[in-house]
Amino acid sequence: MYDPLAHPQLSPNQPYPESFWAFNTGKRLHFPQLEATVQTEVVIIGAGFTGLSAAIALREKGVETALVEANSVGWGCAGRNAGFALPGSGRLGFSALKSAYGKNAAIGIISEYYQAVDNLKHFIDSNNLQVDLVQGGYLKIASKAKDINLFEQQLNDLPSTYASKLSLLSAQEVDTHFIETHQQFGGLYNSSSFGINPLKMALAMAELARENGAHVFQNSPVLSYEKAQNASHGKRYVVTTTKGKIYCDHIILATNAYTPNKSLPVFYRAQFPVLSSVLVTHPLRDEQLKFVKQAGLMCMDTRALKYYYRLLPGNRILFGGRGAVWGYNHDSPLIKRKLINALKSSFPNLDDARIDYFWSGWVSVSQDEIPHIGSLPSDPNIHFAMGYCGSGVAFTHTAGKRLAQLVTSKNDVPELPIYNTFPKDFPFAPFRRLGLWGYYQWQSLMDWVS
Ligand SMILES: Cc1cc2nc3c(=O)[nH]c(=O)nc-3n(C[C@H](O)[C@H](O)[C@H](O)COP(=O)(O)OP(=O)(O)OC[C@H]3O[C@@H](n4cnc5c(N)ncnc54)[C@H](O)[C@@H]3O)c2cc1C
Question: How far does residue 363's CA lie from ligand 1's centre (Å)?
Answer without folding.
Answer: 7
